[in-house]
Amino acid sequence: MHGPALSGWLLMVLCAVAGASCLARTRGETGEVRRAGRAEAAMGFGMAAMALPAALVRPPGWAWAVYTVLFGGAALRALWFIRGGGHHLPHHAHHLVGSLAMVYMAVAMAPGAGAGGHAGHGAPPPGGVPLLTGLLLAYYALYVLASAGRLIPVPVAAGVAVDGGDGGGGARPELALACRLTMGIAMFAMLLTL
């Protein structure tokens, strides 16, 4: 990632903790909740690796290709689960957008990105395509605001059943939502550095 080393370290720690939290959430779970937790953990750890400040630890030139393959595979996995539809469709669609955004950032930040041609000859500008970056920033800004709004406690009338309904979070759906919110904020911050 491009940007100050301190913010890179903070972002890396935030993503690693979110990934570890998602992974810990999968213990004792089955089915969709376990799959979602593992996918979120992989995204968190991948984001942490990508956020590692290049000023202190220079990633090898092939690291960006590994990120592209890893997150491309995650995008294909999300597409596989989207085909089934169901009430988890929005969650899988979000994973698809996130995985494709990580592929986009890996390609945009690869050594020599945008240097394959001259300005005006079809080469993307260094750091990515401004319109696509702007659309992803808008998506994640809205996602973060919506997720934060769902974390605000709402008074419940006595005798009314409460449903977590967030796409799988086990016994503590607010932890799953907080993890997703954290990674949404981190993705927004990473996109800002393009």
Automatic annotation (TrEMBL):
Pfam families linked: DUF5134
Keywords: Membrane, Transmembrane, Transmembrane helix
Xref: InterPro entries: DUF5134
Keyword Nucleotide-binding: no
TM helices/strands, residue ranges: 6-24, 36-56, 62-82, 94-117, 137-162
Keyword Glycosyltransferase: no
Name of the molecule in the record: DUF5134 domain-containing protein
Organism field: Streptomyces fulvorobeus
